Structure formats: C-alpha cells, structure tokens
Amino acid sequence: MPTFVYMTRCDGCGHCVDICPSDIMHIDKTYRRAYNIEPNMCWECYSCVKACPQNAIDVRGYADFAPLGHSVRVLREEAKGTVSWRLKFRDGREKNFVSPVRTTPWGSIKGPAEYDAPRPEDFAKQELAHEPEALKISGGLPALRPEQLKRGVA
Amino acid sequence: MFTNNPFAASADFWSPLVMQLYVVLMIVLVAAGTLFDIVHKGSAKYFFDHWRKSKSKGPQQVGGGELVSLAVKTGLVDVLASGEFCNARRRLAHLLTMYGFLIYVITTAVMVFGYPTPAAPTPALLPLLWWMGGLMICLGGYWFWFFIRVDVAAEGNSALRIMPADLFILSLLGSVTLGLIWAYLQTRASSGANVFFGLYIIATTVLFASVPWSKFAHMFFKPAAAFEKRVSYANGTRSNLPGPADKPEQFGSAREHARHY
Q1: What ipTM is given for this predicted complex?
Q2: Would you call A60 an interface residue with chain B, using a CB distance cutoff of 8 Å?
Q3: What domain range includes position A24?
C-alpha cells in the first residue's frame, strides 16, 4: 500500500523527506512538491502520512487485494500528543480510533548516551546493552540451558 | 535613483508604444499559458470532479452564505496571508515575494501606460514602490532559493543546482535583478544600461512565456485547492480525515522543523 501525495495540498515543506525511513519521499524536480519515487519500496509505515502538516499524503491499497472505495486516514496532533485514525469501509461502515503518541512524560526515558558505557566482558554476552536491567526482568532473560537441548535422535 | 521612472527614461531607446505592446503581449502569454496549463494538466477538471464528489458525500450541507464566508476566509487567510504554510520562514519568504511581485508588476504597468515619456512627470511614489517591490522579491526569492529549498541538502545536491522547478523563481529573480541593475545604470548614465535592458527583457519574456512549464499557475490553482479544503471541513467529509481528538490529551509536544538531514 504505497503512499501518494495530493499535489494541490502539498507545499513542499520536506517533513516527509526528512522522516521517510526508506528515503523514497523526494521533492519533484518540476513542481517542487513531494512524491514517492519508488512505491514498491514503501513499507507503509505511515511516518510521512503522520508527519505531513498539510495532511497531503494518503495511502492506497494495491487493486488486487484492497477493495476500491475504502479509506484509511490518520491525523497526528502533536500539541495534544495524539494520533487519530479513521477507517472507512466500502460498504459505508466507519471506525475511528485515537491513540496517545506516548504514554510516559517527556524526559522520563534516558537516552543511550545517558547510560554507562558497556564493560569489556559485556561484549561476550548474548544480551544487548543494558539488558536485562533495561527490560526489568528479574533473574535475567529466559534461555535454554545446554542440558535441555536434544543431542541426536533417541 | 529611487524616484526616477526607468521606463520613461528609456523612451528614446524603445518607443512607449512598443513597450506598451510588449506588456500587453506578456499579459496575453500569461492568460494563454494558464489556460493551456489548466487544459493540459486537467487541473480544472480534477477540481470540479473532486468538488462534486466531496459535496455529495458530506453529512452536512453547506449553504450559499457559508460558501461566501469560506471564500472570504480563503481569500484573507490562505491567499493574502499565505496561511497554508506551516513553516514561518517559508511563509515570510512567500509573503515578501508575493507582495513584492504584485507591487512591482502593478507599478510597472502604471508607469508604462500612465507615464510613458519624460513629458508626463511620474509621481515620485511610483518608482519608489517599483524599487521597493523589486527589492522585496529579491529578498524573499534569494532567501528561498539559497536557504529554504528542500531538495538541496536532502538530496546532497549543490546549492547552485538548477532543475525545471527553478524555472519560475530563477526567471523571476533574473527579471527583477536585471531590471533593478538596468534602472540603477540608467541613473548613472552608464553605457551598460542598454545591455542590461536587453537581458531584462529576455528574462521577463522567459518568466511570462514559460507559464505552462513553470509553477507560475500555482497562483490560480492553489487558492482553488485551499477553498475546496475549507469546504470539505465545513461539510464534514474532511477529505476522509478523522476529526480532532478529544482524548487522550497528554504528553504533547511542539512540531519540530524539518531538518533535511
């Protein structure tokens, strides 16, 4: 379901260019509006759709599986910290959802640089940096012990 | 310098009638180019199709009085104040360029048709406004082209890279900059004034003759799109967008500006 841009709504501000993780939102060379240069590489993350201040980006389903006439649109309101969805089905039904952008106050989550640097012996472990403390799992991550593994077929 | 009508002063070089015919030709080129653009790209057809679809689907009917009110709001907010821009720098640059262009074009037409020769003394205010309009275009236009264009840093391109989207802004800046240089050289009685006058005419012709290939026509279709957007919000379709969230309202933040990497 690649994204596309309503050219009359877009003002070419570049928010979608900034945020696209696939780097496929570019500025058109003739009209200086945003467009998706490679729709088949779009993974439908909706980042650009939510970031667009003009709500100029929409997502369309491929005709072979998405029913024509449906609509999935999203509105991010950063001042409220909300993301709202409106789903319209082709039979006329409609569903609306509202979600918070985050559930913890700003500044309450430490950034990577605010943690201690890993010790040399930490590099030999299977856990990632700051695990398992950061996962808040007492006793460490559950893992299979060697004696639990089958050795050949009995 | 700022009170000298450059068009009257060049009456010896180019007869006022030719200058007036040239201005009329430019107006015709803009009108014809815009009509061609509308037909070729189907923008008017798209607008009216979308308009009909949006109107019939809306849960609320928008009456004639409300339509007028929306049209006035579109004119005041979206057109006169460039209200659709979300980035303050882009909005300011656009306002400078837009109002500069209007002042510059209107004063040019008034001076060419109203005060074409030194025999008809030009009020000092007109050339002053012409200079002011030209300098506003330069300020807004160069600011935009060198510092605000999105595709430069994001694509790793040179700041001097030129592409078809630059046709409008560069021909506008070329026309105005060369026009101002010509007017300045004229007051200094420099022999280079005629050369710059020729370059000014070439750049101006490119600006107005390239309407079908440039974004000049945006000044016609953008207000139409802004009006259609306001109507879609008034009749409840909101272009299928959800309404403003009434919950949960927590941990909001200000919008960050695009950094373009």
Answers
A1: 0.78
A2: no
A3: 3-100
